[in-house]
Specification:
heterodimer; A: 578 residues; alpha/beta; 26 strands; elongated; B: 243 residues
């Protein structure tokens, strides 16, 4: 989108995408340029706050043209650099409708809106793109937000204004150097030729309280009945929010301890006070699993679901459930963020997503991290006292976590397997025997470290067990969601999968085998999580976890230690409670 | 049936190469090449002919598509050719280039496009991109046909000449029917001042060809100014139902 430099009636300099709608207009520089160029070339003339404004001196018109032309030439533009100031009157027939302004305001509050999203929002509001731009521009001139280049430029390079990434692909454009952000491309790509609107944190974002009385947050009937341990943790979370001792809390729970539900009373407390709450997780599967649980526990609260799998809808809401990627669309919006599975990929490895979470939180806001396997980074924070730590080691049914067992088997990752070839007889016999023993206890979840191994092992296991129903799925499998639904309904005897199912899923009676458990992609956290799929329900509180591998890695040993330690804590707690 | 065979092939290829850490540009599967063999078979369809007049993908025993046979196609192009079929991941790739600010992706496919045009077209005197109207160029920041033409020019050592001008911002052709397309681009192009192309052979470059009306308009302008032959190159075209 092109922006124009204006000098208004008071002699102040402004930048606007809709110069003919600007009521204070006096002179406009044409042609327009993408915002990143204007901001960069005129950085010593414009204030850091893009909506304002330095008083124009009498020579300023010439200086601006000179700087723009000089900048473009330095960037080796192929544009004809003919710039001029024009006296223009604003178009009074297209005045801003105050009614429309008030209607749009809640839609843009607390958000970052990209050029691509302008068209979507305009359609939602049944107005033209231009009318929407005029309205947002009005919000900018009233100080409610800012126009920013989608990718900003400074002396040292490029920065994506949505995800803060500096890993930017540069390319030569008509104007000169341009850039595209590859980090947050999944949300729709952004280039330095585009803009983004970013809302400022509003003074008063308190919505009308949903409940009149929040004293009963703990006594509320939740969809699961809290065990003593759960109730205790829920209470501590509430106390923490009152005391405000730290901005961040880590709730370290055992797999299957019911940590998600434990956060509900805290959510209820915030909602009751009219504050905005976000429930975030790095993975779609987790988000889609939590959404209906929140719906049934907060039946009177409108909940917004944001993930790459559902069409985007604009609108305000007090409770939002979103993947961490979608969180990049918010700015200083939430008072409380409950962040489930904080150590899961891709969040755990992404600087951008970490930035996004912090940017979505209001300055006075609080974050609660939920996980069974906290990262070293989080644990360090807890040790340093920057993050409060609360533990929930007891599973909701009170039984200990099943301990994984290593079975030595000479598995090699690079066997070329297809319908014609066979595994070495030692291996296939071994695996057949192991599976036969385990499968009598319940359906079997088999983890493999690589996507390519899923179809291979479906073939192998089908051959060994022709009478069993064998299926599999992986991240880019188009039938992933259907298959996982069927898996939950116990339609398969043996299900082969990758790390996509390592967390967040509960299948009653399931047993776990990890093939190639010594593979380097398995760290202690994924091994603990995979083990944690077993024994999650009241009917089947125990289960078998087998690590099949050539050798025992450090991660495999640590996984055992972590689980033993968690069980130890659980026993301690129980003794204390008794 | 064909697609299931291709799918099997694709799986086979994946299994063979899964240790490599390079991703196929189109299907994300791990391969050693920029575009994997199964994607090349699926989208480039090297076994099919191209309609001489409009570049559309057609059956092996044909030289022109049925539209062009009935005289509805372009009249000023000597030969038109297109690298692949405008569908699936190839279509996504072109849309990424055009609409998602990633023109640099074109550089990574130069091997395939170079090979294809050298095989199918005689050497030219100059290479000319289909121009974009300046107001759209100002918004997008680049003309993908221009990027492609300059890549070809650099790689093959052919002179690049940006000699055409688009004087109207036409509606995107994709949204229109055949007759509307014709009216839409009629007279939209002219030759820049003081350009002499008499007797030359020109390669005209665009991203996607559908009916060929845009290419034909450009070719007509070039031919009116004495160009001997105009050959058209596109990344993608439609396909004619093969009986």
């Amino acid at each position: 989108m092109l922006f124009y430099v204006l000098i208004d009636k008071n002699g102040a300099i402004r930048i606007s995408p809709v110069p003919d709608m600007d009521k204070l207009l006096k002179k406009v520089l044409r042609p327009g340029l993408p915002l990143s160029y204007l901001q960069y070339y005129l950085r010593n003339i414009l204030c850091s706050d893009s909506s304002c404004i330095k008083k124009a001196s009498h020579k300023i018109e010439k200086t601006i043209i000179n700087q723009v032309v000089k900048g473009l030439k330095k960037d080796e533009t192929i544009l004809e650099t003919q710039f001029d100031w024009y006296d223009e009157e604003f178009n009074p027939q297209r005045q801003l409708a105050e009614e429309r302004f008030l209607r749009i305001l809640p839609m843009i509050e607390g958000k970052k809106i990209t050029e691509g999203e302008i068209a979507v929002l305009a359609k939602t509001m049944s107005i033209s793109n231009n009318d929407l731009l005029v309205t947002i521009n009005e919000a900018v001139s009233r100080g409610l937000g800012e126009w920013l280049p989608a990718i900003s430029r400074n002396q040292s390079g490029w920065v994506c204004e949505r995800c803060s990434s500096t890993q930017i692909q540069e390319w030569p454009s008509l104007y000169g150097k341009a850039a595209t952000c590859q980090e947050c491309e999944i949300l729709g790509s952004q280039t330095s030729l585009q803009m983004i609107f970013r809302s400022n944190q509003t003074e008063n974002n308190i919505m009308k309280p949903l409940f009149h009385n929040d004293q009963d947050a703990l006594k509320e009937r939740w969809s699961i009945e809290f065990t003593n341990a759960q109730a205790k943790v829920a209470k501590r979370l509430l106390e923490y929010s009152d005391e405000l001792k730290a901005d961040e809390v880590l709730l370290w729970a055992a797999c299957g301890a019911g940590k998600t539900e434990v956060s509900f009373p805290l959510i209820a407390r915030y909602l009751a006070r009219g504050k905005k709450v976000l429930f975030a997780a790095p993975r779609q599967d987790v988000v889609h699993d939590v959404y209906p649980r929140l719906q049934s526990n907060f039946p009177n609260v409108p909940i917004k679901l944001l993930s790459g799998a559902v069409p985007q809808k604009f609108g305000e809401s007090i409770l939002t459930v979103a993947t961490t990627h979608q969180v990049l669309k918010f700015y200083r919006h939430f008072d409380l963020i409950i962040f489930d599975e904080v150590d899961a990929y891709p969040y755990s490895e992404s600087i951008s997503l970490k930035y996004g979470l912090k940017a979505a939180l209001r300055e006075s806001g609080q974050i609660v991290y939920l996980t069974a396997t906290p990262s070293d980074e989080l644990l360090k924070k807890a040790v340093d006292g920057r993050c409060l730590i609360i533990r929930l080691p007891i599973r909701h049914h009170g039984h200990p976590l099943p301990l994984p067992k290593w079975i030595e088997i000479p598995l090699k990752i690079n066997y070329p397997i297809n319908a014609e070839t066979n595994l070495p007889i030692v291996i296939s016999n071994g695996i057949e025997r192991i599976i036969k023993e385990v499968i009598v206890k319940g359906p079997l979840l088999v983890f493999v470290p690589l996507v390519a191994l899923v179809p291979q092992w479906i073939t192998v296991i089908k051959k060994l067990f022709p009478l069993k129903s064998v299926e599999g799925s992986w991240s880019s499998d188009p039938k992933r969601r259907e298959k996982i639904d069927s898996l939950k309904k116990k339609k398969y005897d043996i299900f082969i999968t990758t790390s996509i199912l390592e967390r967040g899923i509960t299948i009653s009676g399931v047993q776990v085998i990890v093939l190639f458990a010594d593979h380097e992609i398995y760290d202690v956290r994924s091994l603990v999580q995979m083990s944690g799929r077993t024994g999650r329900t009241n009917e089947t509180p125990s289960g078998t976890v087998l690590f099949l591998a050539n050798r025992e890695t450090k991660a495999m040993q640590s996984a055992k230690t972590w689980i033993e330690e968690q069980n130890h804590f659980a026993r301690q707690e129980e003794n204390e409670n008794a | 049936m064909l697609s299931s065979i291709l799918h099997k092939l694709k799986e086979g290829v994946n299994l063979l190469w899964y240790e490599q850490q390079e991703k196929c540009l189109l299907c994300d599967n791990l391969v050693q090449e920029t575009i994997c063999q199964s994607c090349r078979l699926e989208y480039f369809r090297p076994e099919l002919n191209r309609c001489y007049a409009c570049g559309k993908l057609i059956g092996q025993n044909k030289i022109r598509c049925s539209d062009c046979k009935e005289g509805k196609g372009p009249k000023y192009l000597t030969i038109a050719t297109s690298l692949g079929h405008y569908s699936g991941a190839w279509k996504d790739f072109i849309q990424k280039v055009k609409f998602k600010g990633q023109p640099y992706l074109l550089a990574s496919i130069n091997y395939y496009i170079n090979g294809w045009v050298i095989k199918n077209l005689p050497p030219p005197d100059a290479i000319v991109p289909v121009p974009m109207h300046h107001s759209r160029l100002a918004q997008r920041g680049f003309n993908q046909a221009d990027v492609l033409a300059s890549i070809l020019s650099r790689q093959l050592g052919i002179i690049y000449r940006d000699v055409l001008h688009r004087n109207r911002d036409t509606i995107p052709q994709t949204s229109l029917g055949r007759q509307e397309r014709l009216n839409n681009v009629l007279g939209a192009f002219y030759l820049k001042k003081d350009v002499d192309l008499k007797g030359q052979i020109i390669w005209l470059v665009d991203d996607v060809v559908t009916t060929g009306t845009t290419l034909d308009e450009c070719a007509q302008v070039l031919k009116c100014h004495g160009v001997r032959d105009v050959y058209a190159i596109c990344l993608a075209a439609g396909i004619e139902e093969i009986q």
